[in-house]
Each structure stands twice: as C-alpha cells, then as structure tokens.
Specification:
GO molecular function: carbon-sulfur lyase activity; metal ion binding
CATH architecture: Beta Complex
Number of strands: 12
Largest sheet: 9 strands, mixed
Protein name: CENP-V/GFA domain-containing protein
Family: Belongs to the Gfa family.
CATH topology: Metal Binding Protein, Guanine Nucleotide Exchange Factor, Chain A
Number of helices: 1
Pfam families: GFA
InterPro entries: CENP-V/GFA, Mss4-like_sf
Number of domains: 1
Length: 145
C-alpha cells in the first residue's frame, strides 16, 4: 500500500507553510467578483480539501481572516491570507456560525515539483468571466455555483 500524496504549499514570504494530504475533492476556477478581488487577478483558482487534509507546518498565527459577507450565496466566507505578504491562502464557507468541513486552498500557493501542474476541472460563475478570456478546454462550466 503506497502512502498518500503530500503536496507542500507556502505564501510569498514563506512564513505560512502547509502540507496537503491526498488529492483535492475538486480543482476549480471562480470568476465571481469577490474571488477576482481577493486573488488580485481575473479569477480565483484553488482546490477544495477537507480540513483533515490540510496541515499547517508554520505561520498559522500569521494568518488574517477577512469575513466576506457580500456573497452571491448569502453564506459568510472566511478568506485567509498571510498578514506579512498578503498571499491568499484559503477560503472557508461558514453556515450558521460553523465553518464547513473543508476549505479552498489557493492553487497559486502550491509548491509543486518541477513538471507538475495544477489543472482545473471546473469553472464557476462563468457569467462573470472577462469577455476576452477564453474558456478552458475540457473543463466543466457553470454560470453560477
């Protein structure tokens, strides 16, 4: 029996370090206005992992949480970022005051080995996709979530 895959990740300054165990439940791109602003780009990109798959190795005390209440779903999102360099680390949905069972971990913070790439399986909030940005071939698309 082989050991589960371990994927390291870190913020830009290196103070926040984590390790993911196993594969994401879903790797997705989000075109919603809030993910665009949080990522500082045309879309947010990340993988959804159970909390049990995410282990912080250092810098968890450096994380700041932005409580995003202006969401399409009406659910509160905890958007975690490094307080030193500002790197977006994760997003966790909060329902009735309780964090959901997992988090979206920013694809941009993964420290992938040479030759390995992060590939999305789904695009959400395509209704907000920038008009000149092409669709991703072979990736499922949804107008909202």
């Amino acid at each position: 029996m082989s050991a589960e895959k371990k994927t390291p990740g870190s913020c830009l300054c290196g103070q926040v370090r984590y390790e993911l165990t196993g594969s994401a439940l879903l790797d997705a791109i989000c075109h919603c206005p809030n993910c665009r602003k949080f990522s500082g780009s045309l879309f947010g990109a990340g993988g959804f992992y159970k909390h049990s798959q995410i282990a912080f190795l250092s810098g968890q005390d450096q994380l700041k949480i932005y409580k995003d209440q202006n969401t399409d779903s009406g659910n509160l999102l905890h958007r975690a970022f490094c307080s030193n360099c500002g790197s977006y680390i994760s997003i966790t949905r909060v329902v009735n005051g309780v964090e959901a069972f997992g988090a979206i971990v920013s694809a941009g913070t993964l420290d992938l080995p040479s030759g390995e790439e992060w590939v999305p399986k789904k695009e959400i909030y395509c209704k907000n996709r920038t008009s000149w940005l092409p669709t991703f071939e072979g990736v499922a698309q949804e107008e909202t979530m």
